[in-house]
Hints:
alpha/beta; CATH 2.40.50.1070; CATH 2.40.50.140; 10 helices
Amino acid sequence: xxxTSAKHSRTKSWKTSRNKQRRxxxxxxxGPVQGFTIDGLTHEAKGVARNHGKVTFIEGALPxxxxxxxxxxxxxxxxxxxLINIEQQSxxxxxxxxxxxxxxxxxxxxxxALEQQRSAKMTWLQGQLRKVWPAQGLTLLADxxxxxxxxxxxxxxxxxxxxxxxxxxxxxxDIVSIDNCLVLTPxxxxxxxxxxxxxxxxxIDDKLGHIELLEDDKGASVLLRLTAEIEPATQQQxxxxxxxxxxxxxxxxxxxxxxxxxxDTMRHYQLDELSLSYHPQDFIQVNGTMNKKMVKQAIDWLxxxxxDVILDLFCGVGNFSLPLAKRAKKVxxxxxxxxxxxxxxxxxxxxxxxxLSFIGADLTHMxxxxxxxxxxxxxxxxxxxxxxFEFLPTLVKLxxxxxxxxxxxxxxxxxxxEYLVAHGYQVQQAGMMDMFPQTAHLETMLLLTR
Length: 450
């Protein structure tokens, strides 16, 4: 009989150690300090080195650099190392503007010059799309590298006598307490400073789950998600603060899945001379300026006309649907979240778009016959990170002349596009959209023609 007790003990010890690392963010080295030459960069902004044929990823290192590093995690095919020292620095290395760069898990590309950030993302995207877009170049859509983020979720915690307000660390669940966030819009940076100063002198902080900041054409707003009830007097004091700061205040109480919002307190933003209303917790694009550029490019590429019947899949509150409906014969938006379907319907009515309708449907399941009977000529597809693979067989059966695919995950985009190409479609245009400068994230737009 095998003795499993020692194995169980080792497994338990390893799991305990790993869980401790996850909680604390402290990673123990498992090798000596050694030299590495960096010859590549991953899409997560990690330097790539090859040591005796084995790939090593080193966060913070850049191509062209000679560095000292120490392996902290070893797998059969690759190692991960901690950057100890930079022996020879890249000419493209810059000093991060944010003082919280080393701790915060957000803007991992800040140590690389902006042009090279975008070049690195383009190179990685081209690699992902090499099977479907091998020869032609990619277009680039970009804007300001800082002050662009109009929405943020803040974590909050009382630790000892101190308040921690900010974002999660890159390597653990610990909260990095920040004084400012340079990618927030200037107005939200002001709101953040005022919010932090107010929380330091208020007992509400231990009753908060998280805080959401938002800015749109209605102005700035703060949503407080409560984990426990508060006194009416405390709530009134916070309302006075919001009034003085010229912002809207929303409360999400412990028993609520979402904050209760009336028609008068809905949010809204302007797009293509249209007004879109939405619940403050509904999805909207984080970068407002880039969203306008993205929608314009989508319209230019898809070129809707008065003979087109267009299907807008994963449509949200109508970010693409409404501008398309201004130009097409008919547009049908499909969205799984009921509140956004309702908001989309209200937006169509408010903007007098009688040729626009919305359907509530989960596109990971078999769609209704209503979709197959539309006579669709063009499709706009803007799925979440998981992509739209489950819907693709239905999409191919609809036989639209063109498909415009907007993606926030290049890997699932490549997978889905390969399926469409295998079923009679060809990529006509492809472009990267730098929606989140300073971060490793990118958005992609593809136009496919049957």
